[in-house]
User: Fold Alpha-amylase from Bacteroides stercoris.
Amino acid sequence: MLLLHFFTGCSDNSGEGMEDLTPATGNIGNKVVLYEANPKIFAQTNALAAITTRLDEIKSLGTTVLWLMPIYEQGVENAVGSPYCVKDYKKLNAGYGTLDDVKTLVARAHEKGMRVIFDWVANHTSWDNAWMQNKTWYTQDANGNIISPEGMGWADVADLNYDNVDMRAAMLEAMKYWIEVVDIDGYRCDYAEGVPHDFWQQAINELKTIKGDELLMLAEGSETTLFADGFDLVYGWDFAQELQAVFAGKSKLSALYKIHNQEYKGVPIGKQRLRYSTNHDLAAEKSPLEVYKNERGAMAAFVISSMLGGTPLIYSSQEVAYDHPLSFFEYTSIDWSSNSAYLNEYKQLMQIYNSSATLREGTLKTYETGNVASFYYKNKGKGLLVMVNTTDERLAVKTPIERAGDSVKNLMTGEVITLPVALSLEPYQYYIWEKE
Assistant:
């Protein structure tokens, strides 16, 4: 996929477009579809085995990388139930299963062509972590008291001191452990900006000596400098927030394009931003169905987040339109068969994403068509036009001006039509048309 840079004009619904600024082929975004698995929704006990039984379904969503949220032993002292409160970096949460269970999960995923990354919490530990025996491994106040990460409101965890070389060595050794013993393929690094850049640079370089180019590193953060540390993927927080604002009627699509452009400034060739309409943090506050008004709104938002540049993420539960806030602190039962039509739509969308070189590698043009997101990819004589109604109203819009008259195939239905000068879209309706 390209690093996409946009110029945007006034929102005049003219159907005229702007070319992207400096297209450049990457080597991450067009290879990765991430699936974030929250173990607490797969089974009340033995979640690792439960995830393993669902690998075929996860793969069918186009997944190339499976991200497991923290599966380590959790702290008890001052704890609130967060899996990001780690008591032992090298010990599994016994409720999730055994070392053999996680080895089996990773091996089966590899057999199915998926890489596996673990969630890594390098900024802090639980208050009952064995590392507490080494007080200098932690940040202290003026009175010598170990403190929580400053200004974050995370009283359940203790802040690590990266000025201590022994702590850094222990952290790196723990990261190597799971790659060497279980053969995982990398990490999603929680609150990456809380950890010094030089540690990430050292850690990623050393992990690559074990895993080579197959190592995949995702940073939860927004700073472009994280790419220089060696991360392949960095969150696109601003894009996700702006996407919500667009669907709430509080922002315009031109602002979303601008945010995308800003997030890609300085991103090296071969690196990408992570794109999502929800994730574990957002879903814990509100279901995507609440954020985007209903099932169709949530689907429309996913189409934009997965197809308007960047690397797409699916959070476990959104593919079946789970309609309540979803805690990752406690077990929640999910009926994976509750919405087969919705699930199949996700599968079809990701099949289109993975099979379309035009979508993943083409140059991009965006169009000003009011509250309808319109963008066109072209590659090697082929084209792909995506149009998405971001409102709960029926909208009449002009077809992007140079696309009117094109013979196109609707990739969701197979129907072949000649694009009219104008068309209407039902609430949250979208089209994905391929031009030969």
